[in-house]
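Workshop exercise sheet. Pairs work together: one partner reads the sequence aloud, the other fills in the structure field after running the prediction. Swap roles for the next sheet.
Pair: D.N. / O.F.
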Amino acid sequence: MAALCACWACTDKLSEAEPAQESADQEQISQKILFKGETAVSNQAFLVKFAVKPTQEQVETLLGNGTVSVQPYFPHMPGKEALEAQFGLDRWYEVTVEEGASLDAKVLEAAALKQVSVVQYKLQYSIPENEFMTVPAQEYPDTKGTLSFNNFSDPMIGDQWHYINTGNEKYGTGAVKGADVNVKDVWARLICGDESIVIAVVDKGVKNTHPDLKDNIWINADEIPGNGIDDDHNGYIDDVYGYNFVSKTGFIDWVKPDSYGDSSHGTHCAGTIAAVNNNGRGVAGLAGGTGKKDGCKIMSCQIFEGTAGGDAAKAIKYAADNGASIISCSFGYDSSISSDNAFIKRFGSAEIDAIRYFENTKGNNTVLDGNIAIFAAGNEQHDFAHYPGAFVDIISVSAFAANYMPAYYTNYGPGCNIAAPGGDMKLNYQYGGVLSTVCSETENGNDYGYMQGTSMACPHVSGVVALALSYAKQIGKKFTVNEFKQLILASTDDIDQRIANTTLDGYAKYYHQMGTGAIDAWRLMMNIEGIPSSTAAVGKKQWISLESALGSSSVSLSYLDVVIPQATIDALGLQKIQGTSDSKYPATPAGECYGYVQFGRLYIHPTKVGSGTMTIKVIGGGDHLGGGDNPPGGMEIDRKISVIAREADGGNGTGGWL
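Structure field:
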């Protein structure tokens, strides 16, 4: 998203002083500054416990005349005292200064105090013109009734190439089969979501009444709507579906028709993550379930409303305190920043403290010891990711198009960790974008539209990660947050070879600059299981090495069989091939088959884009099995592998996948 969130510029307490009016895009918020104390109770005059409000005399003793109030910045969450203290959230305070008083002077006064470690101007960024485009979708496109992916009944799923790309030129010139997140076989055979996994969309408001979203909207069961009371004591009143951090109310305002800047952005991102699947309506969502109210849940943490921005740091802490496992953040700071420390020096550390708190909070999921933060890389064609996503340990997402090439607008290079579908309407003005839920004044089927941007790529990764947490829970796997991040970034398809082989102009700059590659949902599920994956080319008889599954000695092992389930045969369109015999390393099985192993390599002939598993049976030690009446021999080893079939040639001179 080109829009910039609420943020703060730092004083020289950290190093470089920044003026309150840093740019024309920023607006000072009603004479407020933030500061972080050295300790939570470093000065009894006002750094007091949350239950005690300092008197005006106490405030002015330390900060002088003109100071109206000093209040804790982050609402306190009962039971989280130790974690709040660990990441310094209990030491952040908001100072309100009298109208007409010099804010700069007050900042310098605070910065000079030994009790204060950080002082930040509290600034709000206004929202510039969106760099993404929004195109309304027809009620139901011409693909209605012609597709049955996983037997889902969502009539628009055929135009969601970002999930299942059939290579239809309708998606844009040079569209490539399989240039998507590879979710079809995950849905069909593994998982579609889990209602216990919550994703916080830190963005514009999510339309919680949308007919394709409402069953997957998170509900705060401990809050009584509309009574004006903080029933669950989390610091927020009437926060039933999340919270609006702009207007500071529990009312999520997903659209203001008379306000510039509202664009259904948060609702569009939410639909990609978890629009309800198989409900006979509209679109599908990556983690939207099967239509039986079993999809992952969307929490709306609204930080944009019209042209106004709210407190992203508070929104992120809210997500942590209320059970979100993922924050999907399609916003960033459009600024050339040279390092993590430079970001903190320029914009401050309240937001980073909140992200660290979020990632280290044990959420509702049973899989991780914390949570995952995911950010968009930015749409300015810069050769670096925008912050906060550019931080070394935060996942930042760049964008590719239906032709499996970097989208024209995407940021790339340092700080970009992974790529996902973001759409490119230069390939096709409408269908080349990402199709998802939007807001309209009616609910007659027009609540759908196309957008493009790394804002759209970010929720694709968020949705795939939500599926992955659902699957890990289903099979009883547990990971640390760091381990899971590494699995995500290792679960990609190569994009560099297409960039290297293209004859199109202008793409060389993206080589080795799109992170680890394109997110692959099937590969991530296999990595969670511990199953190695290999890539095969569609339309070719080929050998695939088994070294990743059986080690470098795989070439000299004796093989017993290859067991290929019918689901894999169907998914890959495997054709029968004729086996050959060898006295020492016999083909297995002999004769006509769907695959065999020889010299540590699997021989298959896939004809369809798809994913599947098969089991290699091998003798561990020697060339025959021991036991029974057999002479001493080896034991049987069964090694499950995954094969992902992709187009060998992208067509139109754009090179191949492999």
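Discussion prompt: Residues 454-475 form the longest helix (22 residues). What would you look at next?
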